Amino acid sequence: MSWKTAHRSFYYAGAEPPEDIRLDPATTALLVIDIQNTYLEPKETLAESARWQPFYDRMRSTVIPNTARLIAEARRRGVEVIFARIACRTLDGRDRSLSQKKPGFNYLLLPKDRDDSQIVPELAARGDEITVIKTTDSALTGTNLRLTLANLGIRDVICAGIFTDQCVSSTVRSLADESFGVIVVEDCCAAATMALHDHELEIINMIYCHVVTLDELVTFFEPSPHAPL
Predict the structure, then answer these.
(1) pLDDT tens-digit profile of 54-101?
(2) What is the layout of strands, in order, in the sheet containing 181-190?
(3) Whether 170 contacts 145, CB under 8 Å
(4) Phi/psi of residue 80, each to 5°?
(5) Across the chain, where does the E strand assignment appear?
(6) pLDDT class for 229, splitting at 50, 70, 90?
(7) In whole angstroms, what is the distance from residue 24 CA to residue 111 CA?
(8) What is the tens place of the pLDDT at every residue in 111-159?
């Protein structure tokens, strides 16, 4: 099934297929969201780790390898590569947003220099690639990313990362509200379960973004005079 007909919600079940997507590398950014060491660490109990095993499997077999390929493709084409990660600037996390201070799954204490708050090594930034630090779900509302994208002349943002139904979705909605063209690469994203992942993609597709596969995405690029041969 093509991206033009996949992930249709009730609202768009009978809508006409969208127009072809054309991406200019000079005005496109790739945003990799929260693929951090902490999310691949074992849980506190064997039972909880077992419950999360399908997520770990998807991250190792699909999301991280595909995102590495996506980053390499972006670099080759001269697309700006930007990373976002959850981290606080204080050791006790007093600068965190309320959602990250509440008990439960969303509770996070990730001082910015600690190993578990870093992007996984397979996807680490290179050279002067930008990393924004956030204490919010959205990578746009809690950082200077909006200004950065404007200064870079970006019009379209490709999103990859975790979790599909939380920080990815929140970021996508914020970008759409700011009138960026947004593409979500579904096989470079994950939620805790495939059911949550698929459901969220159906919710955001065609309203806030277009959901595509990695193989589909690479066909959207126009040649860039700045890309290396």
Answers:
(1) 999 999 999 999 999 999 999 999 999 999 999 999 999 999 999 888
(2) 130-134, 80-86, 28-33, 156-162, 181-190, 210-212
(3) no
(4) -65, 130
(5) 28-33, 80-86, 130-134, 156-162, 181-190, 210-212
(6) very low
(7) 36
(8) 999 999 999 999 999 999 999 999 999 999 989 999 999 999 999 999 9
Structural domain boundaries, residue 206: 23-217
Q: What is the pTM of this model?
A: 0.94
Measure the CA–CA gap between 157 and 80, rounded to whole angstroms.
Answer: 10
135 lies in a domain?
Answer: yes
pLDDT of residue 224: 55
Could you tell me which residues come within 8 angstroms of residue 63 by beta carbon, excluding any fewer than 6 positions away? 35, 160, 162, 187, 188, 189, 190
Q: Judging by beta carbons within 10 Å of its beta carbon (0-12, 13-18, 19+), is residue 114 exposed, middle or buried? A: middle
54, part of any domain: yes
The count of domains in the chain is 1
Residue type, 218: V
The answer to whether residue 15 is domain-embedded is no
Q: Would residue 6 count as lying in a domain?
A: no
Q: The domain that contains 40 carries what CATH number?
A: 3.40.50.850
On the question of a cis peptide bond just before residue 163, with omega within 30 degrees of 0, the verdict is yes
